[in-house]
Design a protein that fits this description.
single chain, about 350 residues, alpha/beta, Rossmann fold, 2 domains, eight-stranded mixed sheet, 11 helices, 8 strands
């Protein structure tokens, strides 16, 4: 009987704690869905607004209730604590929602807009998803699968397609699953990469202008991470070029601890929680870490292009290279994230062209 007053006091505190967690979760999920606001009155854009409004309202109500019931010292920690909780939720759950419920994006310009002839191609994955692609024919008997980054479509890789075609390579530009005109549900951490690139290689291997199995994969950002993973998963690919590749599972960020100490360790724990939440929210299975993929892909070569303006890309490149130093080349390129072609078009064509010429020699 003596415990009842204690339990009576604990129940409202537990309810307020639960309210804070639910409110922070609603705000984080709403933030993750914010990119859908450009879709007008679509279901996900409406849901984003409802989650944000309800989450903020719940947090305000819980905070006001707690403010009235606690003393000066508890009040001093109340607002900063609530802000910290919301920040952590946005950094983890918000990112997981954004990656697993990503907008489809719009296919805009086509290869003809940059002076390239092309044909429409459909590639079906092993799990029955149709991917939309364009194919620019080869003039040298070799070809590449070209993958754009997260939140992008094949239209966003036309500059690279033109440069590669100018070197003689056939180019298969693919809309990532759930993006552009490809079917399926998007996963902007690149977890569908192995399946989707295999389907693209299937389509490429049937082209009569591609001879002797001379195929490689070139990817930007998320597409670069998918390229590294696909090289390890598909022995038909001879090489991979990955620009702006950093991470797609928490293990890819293990370098943070050595590089940044305690701050890096904290970030790594946040990453682990983010990817664990993404695993719950997405039907895609987490892929192998990029460093493991580099080791498994050997002796086939990989060219990593890291932006000079992005130290994290350089750190990630060094971390991956350590798995197989003899098969990985790194170019620290001028410009920002996936901006090497725009910053140094001649050097991009020269470096990528030389690497592919070696890897795809008849």
């Amino acid at each position: 009987m003596a415990q009842r007053p204690l339990l009576g006091r604990a129940a409202p505190q537990a309810a307020r704690a639960l309210g804070c967690v639910l409110g922070a979760g609603a705000v984080a999920a709403g933030v993750g869905l914010v990119p859908h606001l450009t879709e007008g009155l679509a279901p996900l854009s409406v849901l984003a607004v409802l989650l944000l409004v309800s989450g903020v309202a719940l947090l305000v109500a819980v905070t006001r209730n707690a403010w009235r019931r606690h003393g000066r010292w508890a009040r001093a920690a109340l607002v900063p604590g609530t802000v910290l909780l919301v920040g952590l939720a946005v950094l983890t759950l918000g990112q997981a929602v954004a990656a697993t419920v990503a907008p489809r994006g719009v296919v805009g310009a086509t290869p003809s807009d940059v002076g390239l002839g092309f044909v429409d191609v459909r590639a079906r994955t092993a799990d029955g998803v149709d991917l939309a692609a364009w194919y620019v024919p080869s003039t040298n008997g070799a070809a590449v699968v070209l993958l754009p980054g997260s939140g992008s479509t094949r239209s966003d890789a036309l500059g690279q397609a033109k440069a590669l075609s100018g070197l003689g390579y056939g180019v298969l530009l693919v809309d990532p699953r759930g993006h552009g005109q490809s079917a399926g549900r998007a996963m902007d951490f690149g977890w569908w990469g192995d399946l989707d690139v295999r389907a693209a290689v299937d389509a490429l291997s049937r082209r009569s202008d591609v001879t002797g199995g001379r195929m490689a994969v070139v990817g930007l950002s998320m597409g670069g991470e998918e390229a590294v993973g696909a090289l390890a998963a598909d022995p038909r690919l001879r090489a991979a070029v990955a620009e702006g590749a950093t991470h797609r599972v928490a293990a890819d960020r293990a370098w943070l601890v050595d590089r940044h100490g305690v701050r890096g360790w904290v970030q790594l724990q946040l990453d682990r929680l983010t990817y664990a939440l993404a695993d719950v929210l997405s039907p895609a299975a987490p892929p192998a870490p990029l460093r493991d993929a580099v080791a498994r892909a050997a002796p086939r070569p990989i060219l990593l292009i890291a932006a000079a303006e992005r130290p994290d890309e350089q750190d990630a490149a060094r971390f991956m290279t350590a798995a197989s130093p003899s098969t990985v080349r790194v170019w620290t390129a001028p410009g920002g994230h996936t901006g090497a072609l725009a910053a140094a078009p001649g050097e991009w064509s020269r470096r990528v062209g030389a690497f592919l010429a070696d890897a795809l020699a008849p």
